[in-house]
Specification:
Order of helices and strands: HHHHH
Structural class: mainly alpha
Distance between the termini: 22 Å
Number of strands: 0
Number of domains: 1
Shape: elongated
Radius of gyration: 18 Å
Number of helices: 5
Helix content: over 70%
């Protein structure tokens, strides 16, 4: 007979593993959508929402908002750092001058916005599909 502590530990490890799987799927998914020039910049939200529905159907135990936030923030910050280096830092520094903040703060703020969008999209997609767990 399993104790409550062991059951809780098993559920935690399943949640952690499923969240890692979802994170590893989300990062390339967001990158693929962002690399497509023929669709609007916000279209990654739709794809992440569908992925949230997929994880709900597959019954993955995922911390949806946290996993989506981390994946989205990582992709946005990494992409912005790439553009910052490729463009010599001029664009983000000019935006920072307009907002009265340093250029790296602009990169961080855009990462937070990307993380919020991705986290909410994954949470919404997961919540849209009701699971029969009773």
């Amino acid at each position: 007979m399993e104790t409550d502590k062991q059951i809780t530990t098993d559920n935690m490890s399943k949640t952690t593993l499923d969240s890692i799987k979802a994170f590893c799927c989300l990062v390339p998914l967001i990158l693929l959508v962002r690399m497509t020039d023929s669709i609007p910049w916000w279209s990654f939200v739709v794809v992440v929402g569908f992925f949230g529905a997929f994880i709900s159907i597959r019954k993955w135990s995922v911390a949806a908002f946290g996993t989506g936030f981390l994946a989205g923030m990582l992709v946005w910050v990494a992409a912005n750092i790439y553009f910052h280096i490729a463009l010599g830092g001029s664009v983000f520094n000019r935006i920072g001058l307009t907002l009265s903040v340093p250029g790296p703060v602009v990169i961080l703020i855009s990462g937070i916005i990307g993380g919020l969008l991705t986290g909410l999209a994954l949470f919404t997609g997961k919540a849209a599909i009701k699971r029969g767990d009773a």
